[in-house]
Amino acid sequence: MTRIKKNTIAEFKFLTVEEVAKIMRVHVRTVRRWILAKKLPATKSHGQKWLISTLDIPSYKREEIPE
């Protein structure tokens, strides 16, 4: 019998740049700058929109916002 690991990809939730900006109370351009500067991990969807895992958002992890 195979055990399924916790935190499988099905458990992850992804948010758009706009949703992250609203949660973190910053401008959308700020979130995009963090992504381009590799301060906030993100992937591109098939529609070429950035998607950010809730596990990588500082407010979800209770960390400081990147400078």
Care to describe what's here?
With 67 residues, this protein is an alpha+beta fold. It has a single domain (10-61), classed as Molybdopterin biosynthesis moea protein, domain 2 (Alpha-Beta Complex). Helices cover 31% and strands 13% of the residues. It contains 3 helices and 3 strands. The chain has a 3-stranded antiparallel β-sheet. A hairpin with a 5-residue loop joins strand 2 and strand 3 (50-53). The chain is globular. The mean pLDDT is 80.
Nutshell version of this structure?
The chain is of the alpha+beta class and 67 residues long.
Strand content: 5-15%
Query: How does CATH name the architecture?
Result: Alpha-Beta Complex
- The CATH class assignment is Alpha Beta
Output the strand order for the largest sheet: 1-3-2
Profile the largest sheet. 3 strands, antiparallel
Task: Give the overall form.
Answer: globular
User: According to CATH, what is the topology?
Assistant: Molybdopterin biosynthesis moea protein, domain 2
Low-confidence stretches: none
Helix content: 25-40%
Q: What is the N-to-C succession of helices and strands?
A: EHHEEH
> From the alpha-carbon coordinates, what is the Rg to the nearest angstrom?
13 Å
Terminal Cα span: 46 Å
Average pLDDT, rounded to a whole number, is 80
SS element count, helices: 3
Task: Compute the number of structural domains.
Answer: 1
Count of β-strands: 3
Q: How does the helix and strand content classify structurally?
A: alpha+beta
